[in-house]
Design a protein that fits this description.
Blueprint (H helix, E strand, L loop, with lengths): L5 H6 L5 E3 L8 H9 L4 E4 L5 H14 L4 E6 L5 H10 L4 E5 L7 H6 L3 E6 L2 H9 L5 E4 L5 E2 L5 H11 L4 E4 L5 H9 L4 E4 L1 H4 L8 H9 L5 E4 L7 E4 L2 H11 L5 H8 L2 H6 L24 H18 L7
Parallel strand pairs: 1-9, 2-3, 3-4, 4-5, 5-6, 6-8, 8-9
Antiparallel strand pairs: 7-11, 10-11
Helix pairs in contact: 2-3, 3-4, 8-14, 11-12
This protein binds ligand TUI.
């Protein structure tokens, strides 16, 4: 079974899959596990300081000699310092989220780094191609965390048509059917986040993991639509209160900000499943068990191969 695309060529991996850059969640454990399993594992810089990210890079390198990456959340106050660390450390792959990494790209490219911005619209994809990105991740609003407007189904083919660099799909991909669908939409790879929340090597608080396993199809919601920072997370007390405050014109927006500050850390580290932000995608409803990352990847691609081979039957007369 071979899934060779421009993405496997670019990333030098067995499978065209990268792990989502999940802030506070993705550390060297999950990153090295995904890389050792034939994908690209990522350390999420999130809002961490640059020194922390450098240590994480060193730890990944102790555990794998395969390609790995760092996800830089561009709204972080440490983003510029982390941009420098990935350069100094010659990290093989950098993905970015929540902003435009254009000013860093020339230096990263000069250092031989593969640059893959995560974007949520056609105009962003075109801008990223223009400033030298090697590929883009088209992330639909089924995804967990900070999201855009369009669904994966609508976004992916429009981005594929608009750029000539390869496209990976994210948002709604949790099994082999999702991978097969991504290929059908013209993508050449996938980024998977939510399914890896249930990886054995994913060191989130057990309460967070359990919330993902318990989550049903309509178990996620989006907070921050009215404040310009839409974030998909599992419905809990925090999410319900924020959504209610957003509907109330008299609600104190500062109070809302206060409730959200530190809430992702509270979920991931402290296991606060009531007032923590349990970021997860809509596919949380199809994540049912904790498995090693390598098993997740093998299973997903074996299923994708089966689904794609079975699709021939649709054309039989
Ligand atoms: O970045 C993500 N997902 C994230 S970041 C994050 S940490 C966070 N925590 C609390 C509040 C907000 C963030 C959790 N999840 N996904 C990638 C992504 N990036 N989706 C959309 C974008 C994006 C948004 C604006 C990319 C570019 C952009 O502007 C650039 C431009 O050129 O317009």
């Amino acid at each position: 079974m071979a899934f060779q695309t421009r993405i496997t060529e670019l990333l030098h991996t067995e499978y065209p899959i990268i792990q989502g850059g999940m802030a506070w969640v993705a550390d060297y454990h999950i990153a090295s596990a995904v890389s050792n399993a034939g994908g690209v594992g990522l350390i999420a810089a999130g809002s961490a300081p640059a020194d922390f990210v450098r240590e994480q890079i060193h730890k990944v390198r102790e555990l794998t000699d395969k390609p790995f990456g760092v996800n830089i959340m561009l709204m972080s106050p440490h983003a510029a310092d982390i941009a420098q660390v990935v350069l100094e450390e010659k990290v093989p792959v950098v993905t970015t989220g929540a902003g435009n990494p254009g000013k860093y790209i020339p230096d990263w490219k000069a250092a031989g780094i593969t640059v893959i911005p995560v974007i949520a619209s056609v105009s962003q994809a075109i801008r990223m191609e223009r400033v030298g990105a090697d590929a883009v991740v088209a992330e639909g609003c089924e995804a967990g965390g900070h999201i855009g407007e369009l669904t994966t189904m609508a976004l992916t083919p429009q981005i594929v048509d608009a750029v000539s660099i390869p496209v990976l799909t994210a948002g709604g991909v949790a099994d082999g059917r999702g991978i097969a669908a991504a290929f059908m939409l013209g993508a050449e790879g996938v980024q998977v986040g939510t399914r890896f929340l249930a990886a054995e090597e994913c060191n989130i608080h057990p309460n967070y993991k359990q919330a993902v396993l318990d989550c049903k199809d309509i178990g996620t919601t989006v907070t921050g639509r009215t404040t310009g920072s839409p974030v998909r997370c599992i419905k809990n007390k925090l999410a319900r209160e924020i959504v209610a405050m957003e509907k109330d014109v008299k609600a104190d927006k500062e109070e809302m900000e206060k409730m959200l500050t530190g809430s992702l850390r509270a979920a991931v580290v402290d296991g606060d499943d009531k007032m923590g932000s349990l970021m997860a995608g809509q596919v949380a409803g199809m994540v049912h068990k904790i498995q090693p990352a390598a098993e997740i990847i093998k299973e997903m691609f074996a299923e994708a191969a089966q689904v794609l081979a079975g699709a021939q039957k649709l054309l039989a007369d």
